[in-house]
Design goal:
about 625 residues; alpha/beta; Rossmann fold; 2 domains; five-stranded parallel β-sheet; 31 strands; globular; binds coenzyme A; binds adenosine monophosphate
Length: about 625
């Protein structure tokens, strides 16, 4: 294949069936597809219709059968437990087959759902792959979410079985998971019949007789289960992500298109070869964890690093350099916030001098905007290509990137470079009219999306249609930005109420729903305010009901606590101010943009549509009391 980006890109857009049909040859199929792309039911598209495969077979069995049995599949590096454990492809296959047997014996079969609420340990990967092996649909829920968020996901996914662990470890904190799991099952309407609990040595979780089962005990009695072939279009997993309301969106990933896209991206976007060590420093609960800790590296026959630690504090800002040098990592993928954390503690990268990171060929960053300062710092320190790329949980893999396996382009700091082959990224107005180069607009992707992207939302075709019918013929990403005269894309931020906190996607709408439940609150708004470390942090503003004369500081503290217990610590909701009124337009729309500018200390023009201009000075004062604004 040529390495000319324009040729490859043009072919992927104008001849997608030919292009992806060829890419699909890299996957092992039990039965080849009848049709590469089925567009008979637009705007629902299906890839590789008629094809049958098993994703776990492709990730494990195939490699063992082809000489990779002794190669390390997972390096579990856990500074928080002082552990480094290497698991070969053969061992992983054996353990996954046994756990697949456990799930089968608990009554899980093809098409059933399983929720996995676990920390960054190898058993989480085992549970994920075991589901894939028997055709069950997994849904991993990030450990930082509170019981209420877990319960919402239980009610939506209706799992037959839950898999969890006795605790997670966050830096110095040991966080028991079982009380959270029990609480979630108590408040959910759907009651999963069985739970499998992996007991970690740090915490022994009490088991509910008849419902909870010990992982090790079940494994000791299990018999291995074989791969079950599924249709290319069958769901592999559901991954919930924040929308603009309190109800998260269950992004569905299929089996066939996903395997094809994962393998293609490792080669052409990340330029990674089988056998190399690839490290995505993220969490298994996020899209990056699914795609680039588990599936893409294992489907490619790489060694993947599973890191249970932080960029700083476990034990110091040299943690990433230690892992790279100790394990010979070829490419690191993380969120810019991790690099901002390292830069803040070690601005001259003194810790880097202690390690030889000569194996590292690339640093890939995604999940939030890569600010030019952080970009330049990373380039200066590492002296390797630093690649910003843009994607979303919905797409599952990069939509815009400087593809290292095709034709590297000069970098423009602040841009993730150009559209990745397969994605027809355009800047349009609300009517779908393409805007000229340099003009900001809605970032939309012309349909069909390439393989690997969401075919729909779990049990919610109607909500999926919101993405693809707002502007007919396009998938609307929720981001705004522009494309310059050289076809470089610039992401300016979300156009909806989604915010990005330390690379974690959160909904301000869901925080507002929780605040509104407080008995003293008449109305409220949550803003995503710029933060030097985390990119953005949420800040709440609440108006009290008339007649309430309780201590405002106490009410603010209660609101902070409510959001923490409702969503989880990961919301980072620590600041809340009580205000006399929220600024609104004459038609009643809350002027969030204006408040955000005040909180960010930016100049703002008083909107001509504002109902009562005097409200703004009170907002300025309240925001100043939080230490924000000018
Ligand atoms: N389980 C339970 N709690 C969790 C958690 C988990 N898996 N992950 C985070 N939390 C908690 C944290 O302990 C913290 O709690 P606290 O308010 O009691 O201190 C809170 O959620 C906020 O976490 P976080 O935003 O991660 O802040 P932090 O100060 O602990 O760490 C960074 C900041 C930048 C070091 C960290 O966010 C990071 O490494 N991020 C980059 C990598 C990444 O994961 N990106 C995600 C997608 S690529
Ligand atoms: P998530 O679904 O959690 O991956 O979050 C997706 C959102 O993160 C996108 O819609 C963007 O708003 C933001 N995002 C991801 N990558 C980038 C990037 N490279 N530059 C700017 N924003 C990004």
């Amino acid at each position: 294949m040529t390495n000319n980006y324009s040729e490859i890109y043009e072919r992927s857009i104008n001849h997608p069936e030919e292009f992806w049909g060829e890419a699909a040859e890299a996957v092992q199929w039990e039965k080849k597809w009848n049709e590469v792309l089925d567009d008979s039911n637009k705007p629902f598209y299906k890839w590789f219709v008629g094809g049958k495969l098993n994703t776990c077979y492709n990730a494990l069995d195939y490699h063992v059968q082809n000489g990779r049995g002794n190669q390390t599949a997972i390096i579990y590096d856990s500074p928080v437990t002082d552990t480094v454990r290497k698991i070969s492809y053969s061992e992983l296959l054996e353990t996954v087959s046994m756990f697949a047997g456990v799930l089968r014996d608990l009554g899980v079969s093809k098409g059933d759902t399983v929720i996995i609420y676990m920390p960054m340990i190898p058993e989480t990967v085992v549970a994920i792959l075991a589901c894939a092996r028997i055709g069950a649909v997994h849904s991993v829920v990030f450990g930082g979410f509170a019981p209420n968020e877990l319960a919402i996901r239980i009610d939506d996914a209706k799992p037959k079985v839950m898999v969890s662990a006795s605790c997670g470890i966050e830096g110095e904190k040991i966080l028991p998971y079982k009380p959270l799991l029990d609480k979630a099952i108590e408040i959910s309407e759907h009651k999963p019949g069985k739970c499998v609990i992996f007991q970690r040595p740090q915490v022994e979780a009490p088991l509910v007789p008849g419902r909870d089962f010990d992982w090790e005990t079940l494994m000791s009695k299990s018999q291995p289960a074989d791969c079950v072939a599924v249709s290319a279009t069958d769901p592999l997993y559901i991954l919930y992500t924040s929308g603009t309301t309190g109800k998260p969106k269950g992004v569905v990933r299929d089996n066939g298109g996903h395997a094809v896209a994962m393998k293609w991206s490792m080669k052409y976007l990340y330029d990674i070869n089988p056998g190399e060590v690839y490290w995505a420093a993220s969490d298994l609960g996020w899209a990056v964890g699914h795609s680039y800790i588990v599936y893409a590296p294992l489907l490619t026959g790489c060694t993947t690093v599973l890191y249970e630690g932080k960029p700083v504090g476990t034990p110091d800002p040299g943690a990433f350099w230690r892992v790279i040098s100790e394990h010979g990592v070829s490419a690191l993928f993380t969120a810019p916030t991790a690099f901002r954390a390292i830069k803040r503690e070690d601005p001259d990268a003194e810790y880097l001098k202690k390690y030889d990171i000569g194996s590292l060929r690339y640093l890939f960053l995604a999940g939030e905007r890569l600010d030019p300062d952080t970009y330049h710092w990373a380039v200066d320190m590492l002296k390797i290509p630093v690649i910003d790329h843009w994607w979303q949980t919905e797409t599952g893999w990069g939509c815009a990137a400087n593809c290292m396996g095709i034709e590297p382009f000069p970098v423009k700091a602040g841009s993730p470079t150009k559209a990745v082959p397969g994605y027809d990224v355009q800047i349009v107005d609300s009517e779908g009219i393409q805007l000229p180069a340099g003009e900001d607009g809605i970032i939309a992707i012309k349909l069909p999306l390439p393989p690997g992207c969401l075919p729909t939302l779990w049990n919610d075709d109607k909500r999926y249609l919101e993405y693809v019918t707002e502007i007919p013929g396009f998938y609307v990403t929720g981001d705004g930005g522009h494309i310059d005269e050289d076809d470089y894309l610039f992401i300016m931020g979300r156009l909806d109420d989604v915010i990005n906190v330390a690379g974690h996607r959160l909904s301000t709408g869901s925080m507002e729903e929780i605040m509104a439940e407080h008995r003293d609150v008449a109305e409220c708004a949550v803003l995503g305010v710029n933060d030097q470390l985390k990119g953005q942090v949420p800040v709440g503003l609440a108006v009290l009901k008339s007649g309430v004369d309780r201590d405002p500081d106490e009410i603010a503290r209660e609101l902070v606590q409510m959001v923490r217990s409702g969503i989880g610590a990961v919301a980072c909701f620590k600041q809340c101010a009580l205000v006399k009124a929220l600024p609104k337009t004459r038609s009643g729309k809350i002027l969030r943009g204006t408040m955000r500018k005040i909180a960010d200390g930016e100049d703002y023009a008083v909107p001509s549509t504002i109902e009562d201009e005097t409200v703004l000075s009170d907002i300025e004062e309240s925001i100043a009391k939080l230490g924000l604004g000018k």
